[in-house]
Amino acid sequence: MMPLAQMAEAVLRTAEGREKTALSRRLAAQWQAARAAGNAPPIGRADPPLHPARPDAPELLSPRDVPRRRPGTPEGRVALLHAVAHIELNAVDLHWDVIARFAHVPMPMGFYDDWVKAADEESKHFNLMADCLEELGSQYGALPAHAGMWRAAEDTRDDLMGRLAVVPMVLEARGLDVTPGMIEVFRRAKADSAVAALETIYAEEVAHVAYGSKWFHFLCGRHDEDPKERFHALVGQYFHGGLKPPFNEEKRAEAGIPPDFYWPLAV
Ligand SMILES: [Fe+2]
Ligand SMILES: [Fe+2]
C-alpha cells in the first residue's frame, strides 16, 4: 500500500470533482481498513502541489465579481448549493493537504486517522451537494465560484499550527455559525434533499472543528505555549479580517472552542 502522504498527494493531483472524491473515499477506506487490521502503511513523504488540481469549470472569480442572487428564489438556492459544493471540494483538498504537506512533522497516529476521516466526510459532502445540484437540473461547474479559497492554505504552507488555527478553528467554525440559516432557507422552500444533505454536513463539521482544536492544543502542549495567546497571534498573522458574529456558541463549545478564543477577534 502507498504511504499515506502519497495517497494524499494523489487526491490533490486529481482534478475532476467526482473523480477526486471517489479516489479520496477509496483511499480513506484503505487506510481505515489497514489501521483496523493493525498494518497501516507508513506516513512517508510527498511533494504536494502548491495549488491542488481542479476542474476547468467552475470559472474562478474574485469574490466581489461573483454575482449575488437572492436565496428566496430557485436560482438563488442553486447558487447557494453551488457555493457550498465549491467549499466542500476545497475542503477535500485542505484535509489531504495537511497530511501531505506536514508529513515531516511527527504526530501521533490519531492525527492521521482524524484527518483521513474528515477528508472522507468532505468528499461525501461534495457528492451530496453535487447530487442536489443535479436534482435541480444544474451541476457543479455551471456557475462561477470564489477564487482565493486556497489562500489560507498557501499562507500557512510552512506552519502547521497556523493551518490548524485558520482552517478548522476559524473557517470551518464559521461554517457552524452559518449553516443553520442555510438549512432554514431550504426548509422554507420544502427542498427536502437539500435540507437532509445540509443537516448531514452540519452534524459532521462539528467533529472537524474539534479535530482542529484537539491537535492545536496538542501542539501548544508540545511547545509549552498558551493555546489562547498562540491562537490569537496566528489568526492575526494569517487571517485577513476579523471574525464575524453572531457565533454559534453552542456548537463551537461542543467542538472545543471556548468564547475567549473568538470573541476578542470579533469585528
Ligand atoms: Fe464539509
Ligand atoms: Fe469540514
UniProtKB/TrEMBL annotation:
Q: Where is this region: Disordered?
A: 34-73
Name one matching Pfam family. DUF455
Low complexity composition bias: which ranges?
34-46
User: Can you say what this protein is called?
Assistant: Ferritin-like domain-containing protein
Taxonomic placement: Bacteria, Pseudomonadati, Pseudomonadota, Alphaproteobacteria, Rhodobacterales
